[in-house]
Amino acid sequence: MVSEISKIILDGEEYSISEDRKHITGPKKKYTKEDFKEEKGKKIPFLIAPRESAKDGIIYGFSNEEKMEKWLKEKNKFEEYEREKELDKKLKRERSPEESEKIKQYQIKFVEKDTKNFKKLLDKHNLKPEQIDELEKLSEDYDPHFKQKPRSLYLYDRVWYGSPYIKLRGGHQYCGKRYMIAYPNLGYFGFDNKASSAKLNCGSTAKLYTDRGFLGASLKIEWNWFDLDFWVWDFGNSVSSAKVW
Fold first, then answer.
1. 40, 145, 206, 232: least CB-packed within 10 angstroms?
2. How far apart, in whole angstroms, are the C-alpha atoms of residue 151 and residue 153?
3. CB atoms within 10 A of CB 211
4. 101 pLDDT band (50/70/90 cuts)?
5. Which residues make Cβ contacts (< 8 Å) with residue 133, sequence separation at least 6?
6. pTM for this structure?
7. Under 8 Å CB-to-CB from 26, ≥6 apart: which residues?
């Protein structure tokens, strides 16, 4: 598994990151990290890091939803995206203050519980949150008599999975199809604009947004990110809402 991205493909154009991580070279120009973010990154609101990018180091960016949908169809990933869009209709429905408060209190309750249980797991096995390989082995070790452990996203306040952290449980699976749990405001858990790294377990997937309510730039990840500040968008300390499958 690679630890860093080495190539970014934006709307089909390839940009390669230098070994010293100081420059990126595209078809027409060589950029510094800052120049690239300013000239290219802010025009790319949709980012995807598929599972295979953990091996090849490639992420994909799109300037609009139509180009992203075309790529998803080519990669046979469109069906899941369509289900997400259907669920988004429910997310965008206008809610009364009472409904919104009910969602908030419900999510606070089980996120606090899951995060405490994660800490208990760390303490029980004398592990630190950054020991992700050891944690992955624990996730894979389950009793077949009982329910499978839930897919989850772990967000960390520091790079390289440093504390403090929260655990966001993913949605269920039904007849081979995955369904998300949506977290419209990470401020509910005191984690708005705090995440600097992200870990996924059990083959989970997550989508991170720079704004509350699933707005702003988005980054879909299917593997662990030790530093959310990277070449296209700086997602470090800017994640405000999330979806987890």
1. 145
2. 7
3. 13
4. very high
5. none
6. 0.92
7. 13, 14, 15
